[in-house]
Amino acid sequence: MGKKSENNKMHSDLSLERISDDLFMIFENEILFQRYYPPKESIEKRTDEYFEQKSKVKEMVNGEFKDSEIELLKNRIFKDILPAYSEYRQIKDSYLEKIENRSLLKYIGFTVLGFEALEAVFLKIGVLAPPTLIASVLFEILLGGAIYRIKSLTDQGKIITAKGYFFATVHNTQKKLYTDIEYSEYQHKKGTDQIVSEINVLLKKYDSKDNFWKDFIKIRKYDPTTQASFEKLNTPKFGDFILLHFDDKYNTRIRKIRYDELFKQAELYFKNKQ
Known about the structure:
- The protein is mainly α.
- It has two domains: 2-190, no CATH class; 204-273, no CATH class.
- It has ten helices and no strands.
- Residues 1-13 have low confidence and may be disordered.
């Protein structure tokens, strides 16, 4: 029950739907007076700026966002939400252009001409007697205006439908984010188990805690990420543990997690060994 509550809190903090709403409003307001959908680079830059500000606020208030959680959220935004918004904007701009280019006078003119042509045909064969000229023209003008209005409303309806598809994508992506978070937790736990196993192998190589801490301080201070930089430290017993740090296999954050776990396990190990 406690775990479920914790997950619900985490999911609430990582509301992709809420953030997508924010970004949607930002994008729509900023391009309100622009004719076409802005370049992809500007949207991505604005999204990066949004997350940067969001992270700062969260850190100042209560530190709810973890780096890993932000990355998962950003990945989903860039992978699924921004392309969906781009598609929505292209559809919207296409129909807005049609609406703007549609001429009321043309619709009225073509309607009047069309009906006048039909009346001329029917009059010629004597089937239909024409109504008074004024009433006929007024009817044709109203009909042309109605057709114009219906076409515009139809296009606006298609824009609303495209917007609905966008937010449906957001909703479905939120579910994917939940899976990402749960999988990340699983991987972290799995990774922690692996670290503990590596640490146990490393600590058994040291008979003296002083020698271990001497080597640990060197490793932690210089954080070697290449074979050459590691060999300069003359700490060969760390060879197996540090091997995975080479060639950018682990980023700075993950290396810090490994060092912190090593520090914690080493304290317990040498304390129990006394």
